[in-house]
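**User:**
My hope is that you can spare some time for a protein that puzzles me. This is the protein in question:
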Amino acid sequence: MQTLAQNILACKTAREKAAQTAAEVLKSSMNISESELCKKWSENLYKGGIHASGWYSPPPRGLAALFEHESLPQRVAYDNLRKQEFWPLGSKVFGQNSIGYIYASPVAKLSGIIGDFGMTVYSGSNKNILSHIKSILETVEQAAEYAQVGMEFREIYNFCQKLMAEKGLNNKRTMAYTDTAGTNIGHTVPWTYELPTTDELAVINGANFETLKNLISKKRVHLNGQETFKIPSTVAFTLEPRAESNVNPSLPMASLHLIITFVDGKKEILANFNPIFQVLEMDKFIQSRFS
């Protein structure tokens, strides 16, 4: 059985691979459809020590891509990626002046640890849209910096809500069907703060991936306005508000999905956005402060 620190390293490694392979696909294939991107992404991502599908499935294979022209951003304003209407399409293409959202949910074979990665991507030059995405990135990074060992999840949620309100943003669409509180902005990575039980270990090491992905989903603790879960000294959790503008509703919904880790009280914030910002030339306007 792996240690908690090893499990957090597995989370970091899976996420890095998801980001790296997405950057490679986008670099080699502009004017790519949602379905083609997910096909190429899966071929590069799901090999080696990563399961052949993501845990968040549907959508097919635990991958999502939502593309639309910047003037019609309704497709990226999804409420839940599990709905078939938001599965990858061959008719939706990421070309010039496109807004999009890409997401992967890789699972490490050895440990069952997830390393989710998701971000808004943009190929245009509209300064209002770029400023909007930049504002959301700054907000989520500031909320990530606020998180400390011993803090309750609801404290982070409330702090993030305050930041967004100050910037004229809301995250009313950030919901999960497994979260009874409704709106949430993240969740724990299972088995990064407590080791799996004997029964859970049997599922992790077993051959039934459906059972494993359902276990992962149910094991998460959601980051919402009611959750009193206190951040332990070793843990990993996501921070992923999907933000919209109160001031200008025509701006697209956008999300920059972070993972925050603590190992023996030492914090690291995982972003992995900059290589993709660079590929899309978004880096001229937007850069993450974290690796």
In short: The longest strand covers residues 63-69.
